[in-house]
Amino acid sequence: MPRTELVVTLGARLYAVERPWGELPAGMSLAFVSQVAVDAAGFVYLCQRHDPPVVVFDPDGRYVRSWGTGVIADAHGIAATPENHIVVVDRDAHQLLFFDTFGQLVHTLGGRHRPRWQAPFNHPCDVAVAADGEIYIADGYGNSAVHRFAADGTWLATWGAPGSGPGEFTTPHAVWVDQLDRVLVADRENNRVQVFDRTGVFQDAWGDHYHPMDIYVDGDGMVLVTDQIPRLSMHAPDGTLAGRCRPVAYGAHGIWGDARGNIYLAEANPMNRITRLTPLEPA
């Protein structure tokens, strides 16, 4: 598996950068890589806007399986849930698809090919599932909203409107629920991350980003944000910038981490690969 000689730092943390990460079968290639997620067992799920839409690797990067062809129309986002489901955001079908880890469809959220204005869904971007099972969706390509659903799929609330003020969005592109019960939203075209409570009450906004693409919060509560330029930033829970590096050739469209402290970055066109950051002991 190819490995570069690049080492990067995020604050006091050092990482070796491995790119591309993951072994593909002979004859398989990736295209329009969009997002990455890691389940509780450490298996890595890549989604791409190409067939097969979902490609699965074991924790060591060995190919396991792929699935979703003929079921997923436009895989834009992917997430692993506490119930060990894999959720795919099917952007242009205006729907969320919940699968088991083998790719069997379990249930859906939203009407397939039935978009709704400022209501679920209109070209959604990303999904986050909280520890209690509540579901949050960044609905950003057609709408400017975040939707909140109960674990059983009951709609609870929608917040947001087009604009640049507090609680307004211009392309809410990613969402994450952290350990402090906050909803973090990558407000891409407004160059910021907005912070809300679980009911949608605005709390804070963190600037100093250029088109933030995705968010991942690690086990220590540190907030990692990818930008559309080749930059990865780390914020302390209060929003203070704690580190920044350049681990990718272009901007990473997606990010996730595992229990071993590895960070996985989904690089879209023209690279179409997964880059992995592996922790090193400080010098």
Per-chain topology:
Elements: E1 7-10, E2 13-21, E3 33-38, E4 44-48, E5 54-57, E6 63-67, E7 75-80, E8 86-90, E9 95-99, E10 105-109, E11 126-129, E12 135-139, E13 145-149, E14 155-159, E15 172-177, E16 182-187, E17 192-197, E18 202-206, E19 212-217, E20 223-227, E21 232-235, E22 241-245, E23 252-257, E24 263-267, E25 273-280
Antiparallel strand pairs: 1-2, 2-25, 3-4, 4-5, 5-6, 7-8, 8-9, 9-10, 11-12, 12-13, 13-14, 15-16, 16-17, 17-18, 19-20, 20-21, 21-22, 23-24, 24-25
Number of domains: 1
Global shape: globular
The helix tally amounts to: 0
**Average predicted local confidence, pLDDT:** 97
Strand order of the largest sheet: 1-2-25-24-23
CATH class, named Mainly Beta
The number of strands is: 25
**Residue share in β-strands:** over 45%
Euclidean distance between termini CA atoms: 25 Å
Q: Give the CATH architecture.
A: 6 Propeller
The residue ranges in which pLDDT falls below 50 over 5 or more consecutive positions are none
Helix-strand makeup class:
mainly beta
* CATH topology description: Neuraminidase
SSE order in H/E notation? Answer: EEEEEEEEEEEEEEEEEEEEEEEEE
Share in helix: under 10%
Q: From the alpha carbons, calculate the radius of gyration and give it in angstroms.
A: 17 Å
Main β sheet profile: 5 strands, antiparallel
Instruction: Please identify which CATH superfamily we are dealing with.
Output: TolB, C-terminal domain
